[in-house]
Design goal:
about 270 residues, alpha/beta, 8-stranded mixed β-sheet, 9 helices, binds S-adenosylmethionine
Length: about 270
């Protein structure tokens, strides 16, 4: 199958969201241009590196819940540059037969994922754009790693906010949900403007300098991405409040990370 047109090549002159994110997480897969932008964003929003770690922690907790529900195959879109606690590590630690397909638009993220996963036959990597869900699904089917007739975990952690309204994110989510068998689960975390101070909006403006600008959305809009699937408790909440490992770990101001997270299950239609 041909690569769709419009996927970015590595551009060293322009910061990339994946590499800025990698820098915040303490990774080594970033360039000077990424570090400069990361420092600028961090100066304006000192919370941001912690926010990214909190996003990762939310994803880890969500994957554990899916593993407990028996989900043994994952489609992780916007997976980023591999770093500590990747989905396949969390999943395969609990179930060595768990399968994971990673998808990212960033060529650096894809290259590093391929390198890290070489030899892990139960994982695959796709270079693709979330805005083309049908292409992602076709590519995922070609890999023959995921069985779309069985329950699947679809993971969209910190990525849907890179899709502007003009690209119809609700339709993209609907396309992904409709490809998943009953029993499947959808995990979404997404930046929001709700309960946020003005610096957050400044950081959003800076994000326009990466190849992908962020669109902050309301809790209602983010909840809409789950469609008619059944939201697991506690619903769509500030990430830190979603099933914390220990209640004592939740800070007094869980809204400080500026992102909601939620998990929903595709229940069999009644009747
Ligand atoms: C903030 S990182 C999240 C990484 C990981 N999911 C996590 O939660 O730790 C966002 C990732 O989404 C990717 N991304 C942004 N827009 C995308 C798109 N349209 N299609 C696929 N991936 C995209 C970026 O390249 C980046 O690696």
């Amino acid at each position: 199958m041909q690569m769709p047109e419009g996927l970015p090549e590595i551009d060293l002159a322009r910061p990339s969201a994946a590499r800025v994110y990698d820098y915040f997480l303490g990774g080594a897969h970033n360039f000077e241009v990424d570090r400069q932008l990361a420092e600028q964003i961090a100066a304006m929003t000192p919370n941001l590196p912690a926010t990214m770690r909190a996003g990762r922690e939310f994803l880890r907790r969500a994957v554990r819940v899916l593993l407990d529900a028996g989900i043994d195959q994952y489609l992780d879109i916007g997976s980023g540059i591999p770093t500590v606690g990747n989905v396949h590590e969390v999943a395969q630690a609990a179930n060595p037969k768990a399968r994971v397909v990673y998808v990212d638009i960033d060529p650096v993220a894809v290259a590093h994922s391929r390198e890290l996963l070489a030899g892990n036959e139960l994982t695959g990597v796709i270079h693709a754009d979330l805005r083309d869900p049908e292409w992602i699904l076709a590519e995922a089917r070609q890999l023959h790693l995921l069985d779309f007739d069985r329950p699947l975990g679809i993971l969209l952690a910190g990525v849907v906010h890179f899709v502007p309204d003009a690209d119809r994110p609700a339709d993209i989510l609907a396309a992904l949900r409709s490809a998943a068998a009953p029993g499947s689960h959808l995990v979404v975390s997404h930046s929001t403007f709700e309960d946020q101070p003005p610096e957050m909006l400044d950081a959003q403006r800076l994000s326009a300098r990466t190849a992908t600008e962020i669109t902050l959305r309301s809790r209602a809009e983010i909840t809409g991405f789950f469609g008619d699937w059944t939201l697991l408790e506690p619903g769509v909440v500030h990430m830190e409040l979603w099933r914390p490992d220990a209640p004592s770990e939740v800070a007094a101001n869980p809204e400080r990370f500026g992102a909601f997270g939620g998990v929903a299950r595709h229940d069999r239609p009644v009747g």
